[in-house]
Amino acid sequence: MTRPPTAAQRRVIDAADPVTGRLRGTAPQLAALVKRGLAFRHPRPPHDHFLTPEGHRVRQGVLETPEPAARAPASAGVFAARVGGEEVPVDAGPARRREVHSAWEGLLELRRMTNPGGATDRPCGWERAHLVRAAALALEAAGHSPAGQEGGGYRVRETPQPEAVAVHEPDGEALRACAATLEGAGWQVSEHREPRGGTRYLLASPRRA
Q1: How far is CA 66 from the centre of its chain?
Q2: What is the phi/psi pair of residue 83, to 5°?
Q3: What are the helix (H) ranges across 64-192?
Q4: Region Disordered: what ranges (predicted)?
């Protein structure tokens, strides 16, 4: 399990602006939160620091739920949307749904704070830097089922193409539903067939405008 924030880091997180997630703290404290994926430094002056989706979840106390099975595997960091096929099963119960909902709301706030004009209808810089996790979060937040070890459900994977992920789903109707969800979340989606076997899959890229 990833160790929780230190007491000093937690005070900085708890003191974040409740709406924007803007942080105040010493330079080392803010740098430490950025390193842990709980905050990001805004690229435009005055270069303030804001909570990431994971940081919002920590602030809202979602990580304090008692069910350890509802948390992401240790290797995934503070929070990780289910990309499908995880070796460590993640409980799909109410605690997990609260985690995912909180992460998605934090991501929308991140879009509002960092996209030009405060647009929330297209992915932000954080999502472009974490393509697989961002696409998986959009799918899981919409209620799609990730693949288990036995198959069935979506799988989000990296591709050689820049700013593109592949989404696999053996059920054709469910694959089309995944495409609709990603398009609604601001991704450009196209359907393709694998050269061998002809299995259908999606290529999804964050929409820029």
Answers
A1: 22
A2: -90, -10
A3: 94-114, 125-129, 131-141, 172-184
A4: 189-209
Angle between helices 7-14 and 27-35 (to 10 degrees): 90
| Of residues 70, 45, 40, 68, the one with CA closest to residue 56 | 40
Provide the CA 192 distance to its chain's centre, in angstroms. 24
DSSP state of 84: S
Lowest mean pLDDT, pick from 20-34, 38-52, 187-201: 38-52
Residue 170 is given by DSSP the state: S
Q: How far apart are CA 157 and CA 9, in angstroms?
A: 33
Written as six digits, the tokens of 160 are 């050689």
* 94-136 residue pLDDT tens: 888 888 888 898 889 889 888 888 899 999 988 988 899 999 9
In angstroms, the CA 79 to CA 98 distance is 12
Write phi, then psi, for 65 (nearest 5 degrees): -65, 145
d(CA 76, CA 110): 20
